[in-house]
Amino acid sequence: MPPKPLNKTALRRLLEIDRLLRSGAGPTTEELALRFCVTERTIYRDLAYLRDQLNAPLAYSRAGDYGGGYRYTNPAYLLPANFLRRAEVTGALLAGRLAAQHPGQPRSADFAGLLERLKDLVDSQELSVIENEASAFDYAARRVWRVDPRIVEAAGAALRRRHRIQADLFLPGGGDEEAAGGNWHRFTFEIYRICNLDGAWYILGREVESDERKAIPLARLKRFGELPERYGVPPDFSLADALADAFGFKLERSGHRVQLLFRGRAAHQVAEREWHPSQRIAFRPDGTLRLTLRTANLAELARWLAGFPGEVLVEAPEELRLLVCENARKLLADHERSLP
Question: Taking the domain 8-79, which CATH number applies?
Fold first, then answer.
């Protein structure tokens, strides 16, 4: 019979008590009560749950015997996984499937090891049911950017210490990496947040040289180093605001009002989903659809519009219309050169 479920607070407390018992610290009920800011009666209930529900080999020793306090008489004892709800274990397995779609990510090996340990602790019959439930769901990642996990870890360490970083950023567009030494840009950066967007890891923050807020893809960095200079994250920075733009990151408050006119099949495709938090759509009597939105990322929006050839007209802004025309001219020139 599975143990009675615990609320989140009791579960966190129980896991920490288990860690202390495993470390050989020999805590007493008084010490545990002070540590968790609860009564000793609550701690006695936690210990009884460990002993009676989870079959923990608990023993108490007076001062002088084994250092005093509570301990496990069997050091090899492990908490059983079945004190977790089935839905929680299923969720962990689904998270593992999602992580597997993004190989080479930081801590991926540690997470895979955790899942294997979790499965080892679950009763085989129960595990079969859980894996059957999880098999009904799949994740498909179409675009995964390859990044050195060591750079992501180093960026995380610099952010935790609030230390500036310095690195070389590859700027594409001027030839291959080997022949285009001038395409590497040395910069200094203050990291406000690290974010994975659509399979790519970015550092969000301020470039010191330009004094501009930017989103830098970690896959394009090399010679990443941490500097001793410290900084503070501005109170007005918000990850939610930065992610409010569906066409990339919005790190500056200014943006462009965009107005697009779709026709044919594209009009219905665009109407079927939300492309941007600020979007407004309206069908016109002739069957065309007008989409308006506000974005600061015209370059990314222009690439998206290339997927609707002959079915979209840029009404505003003029800057976006010129960008779409320039992209089309480049595409046409590249393909005309390849013709016999």
Answer: 1.10.10.10
